[in-house]
Amino acid sequence: MKPLIILLFVGFTVLNMGCNQRKEKGFACANKDQEIKVSKQKSPVYFKKNCAACHLFDKNSTGPALQGMMKRLPNREWLLSYLQNEDSLIRLGDSTAIRISKRLPAVRFHRFPGLTNRQLDELIQYSKQ
């Protein structure tokens, strides 16, 4: 019984320490932050399905803010490749993809080969607002 109590105490202590970490300024949880500036244009449905869990329009979250995204990336073709399979760009040694992967090394989710170029272009236009 005593080892169980010690284990629970240590578990709660570790959990509490993790939850009380200092939050980086400008970052928010995409699922919890409800005071988010709404973009001028309604987001595409596939944005909500594929992107909204990690990306907010105007704030960094699990992923970077989408607003002004194209100013931070090489070009449209690069972004299309990245969204369809970021791992292939990393394996090819693409410096931008590697820089992004180092920022969040455990998070790689950009594998959307099912999205058409038209849908991806709509996402790009959405991010340019």
Please characterize this protein's 3D structure.
The chain is elongated, with a radius of gyration of 18 Å. The chain is an all-alpha fold and 129 residues long. It has helices at 2-19, 45-50, 69-72, 76-84, 86-91, 95-103, 117-127. It has seven helices and no strands. The longest helix is centred in the first third of the chain and has 18 residues, at 2-19. It has one domain: Cytochrome c-like domain (Cytochrome Bc1 Complex, Chain D, domain 2, Orthogonal Bundle), CATH 1.10.760.
Defining key terms:
49% helix, 129 residues, Cytochrome Bc1 Complex, Chain D, domain 2
Summarize the amount of helix as a percent range.
40-55%
Helix-strand makeup class: mainly alpha
Largest sheet, if any?
none
Low-confidence runs of at least 5 consecutive residues = 20-40
CATH homology superfamily: Cytochrome c-like domain
CATH class: Mainly Alpha
How much is the average pLDDT?
Answer: 73
Terminal Cα span: 59 Å
> Which fold name corresponds to the CATH topology?
Cytochrome Bc1 Complex, Chain D, domain 2
**Over the alpha carbons, how many angstroms does the gyration radius reach?**
18 Å
What would CATH call the architecture? Orthogonal Bundle
How are helices and strands ordered from N to C? HHHHHHH
In total, the number of strands is 0
Shape: elongated
Strand content: under 5%
Number of separate structural domains: 1
Separate helix tally: 7
